[in-house]
Amino acid sequence: MVFSRAENTNFVTLNGVMEVTKADVERAFGRAVSSYEVQPLDPHLRLHSVTGGVFRVRADGDSAVLKVVRHGVDDDPGGLWVAGGDVAHRNYWKREWLAFDSGLLDGLPPGVRAPHTLHTTQPSDDECWIWMEDVRGRTAHAITLDDYEVVARALGRMQGWYAADPARLPSQPWLSRDWLRGWADTSAGQLKAVGGEEGWDDERLATLLPYRQRAMEVWAASREQLLRIVETSQRTVVHLDFWPHNLFVADDDVVAIDWSQVGIGGIAQDLDQITLDTVWMQVMPDADIAELERRIVPSYAEGLRAAGYDVDEAVLQRWYAAAAAVKYVPLLELQVMTARDPAKVAFAEQRAGRSFAEATATKARVVRRAIELGESALGS
Q1: Are the C-beta atoms of 347 and 288 separated by less than 8 Å?
Q2: If you average pLDDT over every residue of the chain, what do you get?
Q3: b or e along 353-376 (b: 16 or more beta carbons within 10 Å of the residue's beta carbon)?
Q4: Ranges of H-type helices in 30-110
C-alpha cells in the first residue's frame, strides 16, 4: 500500500492518526519537494511494541526511511519484548530515538554502521520519529555465507575499537546495561511454564522433546555461571538485535538497522544473532550451524585485532558460547508456548513460510547447539 499526498493537502495521513507533512519531508531531505509518497515497510516483522511503524518516503526521485517509536501497550507485561518506561529497562521505548538524536550512531567507529540520521522529532510525549538514510544492500535471505564473514569482521572492528580503550565507551544513562540478565530473568519466569507435561504430546514438538530435560538441567543449574562468564568479557557497544533482517551488506559496507536495544555489553555477545538466530528465525533454516560458526567467529576475531583489541580465540569462543546458551536454551519454552495458541502458530507459519512442525525441527537443532555451547563454556 502506498499513501500519496492528496492534490490539495500538505500532509499524508497514515492509519487515520499519523500525519506526514510536506514540511516534515522537506526538513528530512534538506530541500523543497514538489510531491511525495509514503509506503509501509515489513509490517509483518514487527513484534516490538516500541515500533509504531516503519515507512519509506519517496520525494522527487529520492527516498528516506521514517521510523516511528512509541511507548506501546503490551498484552503480556511479562513478555520478552515489552516496552519499558524507565531508562534502565531492557526495552526502554525511547532508546533508539535517543541513539539517533544524540549523534551516538553517526559517531560509531569504522566497521558496522547505522543509517545516517536525517532528522529527529518528538510529536508527542509517547511518540518519536526518526528520519534516516534509506540503506541498500543484501539483507535477510539474500545475505550469502561469504557476506557473514564480512559482517562478522565489520562487527569486530567496531566493537574492538571500544574494547581496546574503555575510556571510549559512551556513558549515556539510557543505554541498555545488563541486557542479557534481563532476558534471562524474563525467560526463567516463562520456562517454569513448560516444566509440566501439558502440551508435550503435541506431535509437532516431537523433534524438540529429546532436548527438554537437558535444557532444563543446564538452565536450572548453570544460568548464573554462564552469565558470569559473559560478564567477564571486555565491555563494548552492543546492538543486541543483530539478526539478518536488520543487516544490509554491499561490498565492505555493513549497515545495521533497529538499534532499539543498543547499549554496553560484552565482546562476542552479538555473534549468536548471526549464527544461531540465522537458523532459528528461518532465514537459512537448513544451514549448518557449525559452518556458520567456523566462518563467523574467526572473522570476528580478525576484526577485533584490526581495531587494536587482541584476545585468545579460546577465550573468545567461551564468551560466545556462554552468551548463546543464555539466549537460546530457554527459547525451547517459546516454541512450546506458541504451540498452545492457534493464532500464534498461524502467525509463526506465515512469518516463516513453512509449517510449524518443520520450523520446530529447525529450532530443535538450535536448542541442541545452545545446550552444547553452554556445556562447553562451563567445561572450559
Answers
A1: no
A2: 89
A3: eeebebbbbbbbbbbbbbbbbbbe
A4: 95-101
Three-class DSSP category at 164: helix
Query: Is 109:253 a contact under the CB 8 Å cutoff?
Result: no
Cα gap 195→367, rounded to integer Å: 16
Domains (ranges, CATH) in the chain?
Answer: 3-133 (3.30.200.20), 140-379 (3.90.1200.10)
Q: C-alpha distances in angstroms, 179 versus 36, 291, 319, 358?
A: 39, 28, 15, 31
User: Distance between CA 262 and CA 253 in Å, rounded?
Assistant: 20
**What whole-number distance in Å separates Cα of residue 325 and Cα of residue 339?**
22
State yes or no: pLDDT of 18 exceeds 80: no
Hey, CA dihedral for 152, 156, 157, 162, is it positive or negative? positive
**pLDDT at position 112:** 98
Global pTM value: 0.91
pLDDT at 201: 85
pLDDT given for residue 189 in this prediction: 63
Checking if the pLDDT of 3 tops 80, the result is no
| Nine cell digits for residue 266 | 560484552
